[in-house]
Amino acid sequence: MKKYLPAFILITLGIAARFLPHPANFAPIGAIAIFSGIYLPKKWAIILPLAAMFFSDIFIGFYAWPIMLSVYGSLIIMALIGLAVRKNKKLSTVLGGTILGSVIFYLITNG
Prior knowledge:
The protein is an all-alpha fold and 111 residues long.
């Protein structure tokens, strides 16, 4: 049970953060996706951010499937960036991966 605690906490925080007021495209789900890729077991890297989005979407409401597909797909890409950064974890790669993930998310979801 202890090994699942970080995943549970991140899902809970991700869901809660979507209910708090925030600027558009400025929710921490993307950061959770990158963090998951870097620090959690590989199977959780992709499942965790998608679970947080899905469970919060149950309460917030689902929207047009093409938009949801782009958002969920972007989160998968961000988790994969985190997995790539995991191999060479240092400040510059974490910062670069974070910026790259944010730019890709923005381009896909707002393009």
